[in-house]
Amino acid sequence: MTTLPSGVRVVSERLPGVRSVALGYWIANGSAAERDEQAGLSHLVEHMLFRGTDRFASVEIDQIFDAMGAEVNAGTDKETTSLFSRVLDHHVEHAFDVMSDMVWRPTFGGLDAEREVVLEEIAMYEDDPQELVFDVLGEAIFGAHPLGRPIIGRAAVVGAVTREELLAFHGARYRPERVVVAAAGSIDHEELVALVERHGPSVEGAPAAPVGGDRNGIPQEERRVRFVRKDTEQYHVCLGGPGIPRDDERRFALRVLDNILGGTSSSRLFQEVREERGLAYAIYSFTSHFARAGEIGLYLGTRGENLGEALGVIAGQLERVREDPASVAELDRSRENLKGRMALALESTQARMNRLGTSVLADLPILSVDEIIERIDAVGHEDLLALAGELLDPARLSVAGIGPDEELLRAALAPVGGGA
């Protein structure tokens, strides 16, 4: 890893025997750093990176990567924006030149057209209850804190923002000290550093502006129930609550616990709700980690006639996991699952680049495979018992629901703390 005088951090991993290079820009900017009146601008800016620069028109960007047999893509989440590609090694300089121009020098042309694209994306999500329910859960868990807002933003904000406002937003957020360049594959580190220096930002004299938002604040814990009425065939329900931040060493134990509860096809929730009783097609648990907070939860999709029974089974499994979080066989299986998935994922240059970029941007240590395995193997029954007792009490779990009848859902919630 190299930190340039501009503040940009460059991290790479050379992998022998491959011809590809995964390249990524990682920017410390996401929806959690937005003020209410900016909700959705991080996501909109990410879209606008593809609308061209002074040197490359939008269609040229597509043509350049198509000609390489590659593609360039991007994503926005709560705390990060990323732009990434995977190319053959002899295309690295050209690809990085274009990507750098997109990140540092977008023109924000074609705003009206891209605004409509994002508004259609917002409408698409709002029409999809299986996606929307997670945004409803975020608001239920985090309330008015920015972590509770949808990453995709609000139509009113996206529909009204001007090009000048987007340029100012980009200038405040896409600062060198907030950027990591990551690469993995057939790449020499010093050559990558030289590329970053050659194609990097032109920010001489540009003042660092405050970004706003409450990114560093810790949400106040409060149980909430949120319901959105839609004429759906199924009820889409999430139970969730605050988790642990991304630098908490207990994150390895939480991954083991999540596997056992609902993260795999052999998990307790999947076996009891779906396989044994046929009460749902989709049932699983999940975790997320942020700078100062986290989120844990589970998702259930089921018809109204099965809702009460399914939630009763879930309540039973939550009680069981707090009393006995893992048998010897479950603990061994979960640990081996995590180690196997990690090893398989790290055969991908894209996955290795993602690991580098996210770790450095989050100021987390880049652990070796052996170090990760050591931490997973160190997870014991007592670690799981403590986490389950702290995080999985139904009395602290908020509820998000989407379906045709709010009263039916609230009545069905009785086993998991009620619908008050």
Draw up the topology in text.
Layout: E1 2-3, E2 9-14, E3 20-27, H1 41-48, H2 58-67, E4 72-76, E5 81-88, H3 92-104, H4 111-126, H5 129-142, H6 155-160, H7 163-173, E6 179-185, H8 189-199, E7 225-229, E8 234-242, H9 251-263, H10 268-276, E9 282-289, E10 294-303, H11 304-323, H12 328-345, H13 349-361, H14 369-377, H15 381-391, E11 398-403, H16 406-412
Parallel strand pairs: 2-6, 7-11
Antiparallel strand pairs: 1-2, 3-5, 3-6, 4-5, 8-10, 8-11, 9-10
Helix pairs in contact: 9-12, 9-15, 10-11, 11-16, 12-14
Structure commentary:
The protein has a six-stranded mixed beta sheet with strand order 1-2-6-3-5-4, with helices on both faces. A five-stranded mixed beta sheet has the order 7-11-8-10-9, sandwiched between helices. The protein contains 16 helices and eleven strands. The protein is 45% helix and 18% strand. The protein is α+β, with helices and mostly antiparallel strands and 420 residues long. The longest helix has 20 residues. The protein is globular. The termini are far apart. A hairpin with a 5-residue loop joins strand 1 and strand 2.
Low-pLDDT residue intervals, each spanning 5 or more residues: 204-216
SSE topology string: EEEHHEEHHHHHEHEEHHEEHHHHHEH
Please tell me the overall pLDDT.
94
Largest sheet: 6 strands, mixed
In short:
With 420 residues, the protein is α+β, with helices and mostly antiparallel strands.
Characteristic terms for this protein:
single chain, 420 residues, alpha+beta, 6-stranded mixed β-sheet, 5-stranded mixed β-sheet, 11 strands, globular
